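Continuing from the previous page...

OK, I double-checked the sequence for Isopenicillin N synthase-like Fe(2+) 2OG dioxygenase domain-containing protein against my notes and this is the correct one:
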Amino acid sequence: LPVVDLDVFLSQSAESEAVVQECKKACAHMHSDCYFKTNNAADALITYGALLLHDSRVSEEDNSAFLDLLEDYFSQPEPELRKDERPELGYQVGVTLENTEKPKCAVDEPCLNVIARLDPEERPLDITGHQPDPKCRFFWKMSEKPPYETQFPALNAQNVVPQAQFIRERWEPTMEKWGKSMKDAVENLCEMAAIGLGLPRETFKEAGKYGPHLLAPTASDLRKYNEKNTILAGFHTDLNFLTIHGRSRYPGLHIWARNTGKRIPVQFPPTGRYLLVQAGKQLEHLSGGLVKAGYHEVVVNSSTVQAIERRSKKSPDRPLIRISSTFFWHLSSDYDLSPISSLASRARSVRAAALRVGVPEQEADTIYAPMKVGQQVQNELRHIALMA
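Thanks. Re-ran it with the corrected sequence; updated structure tokens here:
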């Protein structure tokens, strides 16, 4: 994956050549010879739907403390975890236990068509049985209360703090500290992406000022789900604007680059302060399809099995639970979601340029109907069985 350096953006003037190069070269002319070149934020999101973000502010110690806390939390007995469930709120705060969330793509015809167009060896693990994912999740809201009455109160509910004392005393400081690191990074990337797409710097950041952002770790019990080719999170896209991840202790994330149709096992550089960013459905909608939400899955692969063996030897007293260090950045629920005309026009140029050089899109034309962001979220939650 391409690496975008947030340090350059933060340390220099937005008008400097280095910052412009990092943000902007988004193939503005979309000629066939520049289709999907990638060397900065906007290019990377258009081409791959994902990128690695280098940010020197990120602390590996904070991520490790976060992973330790969530391993401890999800190793509790199920009755303790159930105290933190809020199904009446669409599971948008608190815990979601395993075998609850269904991968939308299992029954979604456009998504199944995407899979069918992939070469057989590049397809995700089979999800057509439509079994719910064997992962748990916790949603911790990291949002600013809007100065108006939201039309979507269930999407903007109060946080749930776990009840167990040995978890509770560490919970809020750890969640807030690591969550702030990822929120700051992704909001700066929003600024870079806006500049790179030829928009005012604040366009995306302001649109998400009151978004119901979520620190959203997922947990997979590797004591139970440790066989190679086990699906932990079935093939899907994220419904939010941008998703950002810190390092997990266990590999297993595969993404599909828009320009190749190839399955890519995501690997962080072995050392250094990096975060992974993926485009979500809200960005796809707002850009009129210029940026496509990235398809991905989480599975037990060979690297996962090796990591389980290493972790068992190195830390035999720690729970064998795969925690994803994940943050979902949302647009504000009451924001009017409609394609930005300049981006929608460029999306049509991208599609035409792709066809000219024999690279058909993996997905057919999509109609991006105007709606409130909250309505878009509710529609997606119904697809994955989290909201009636």
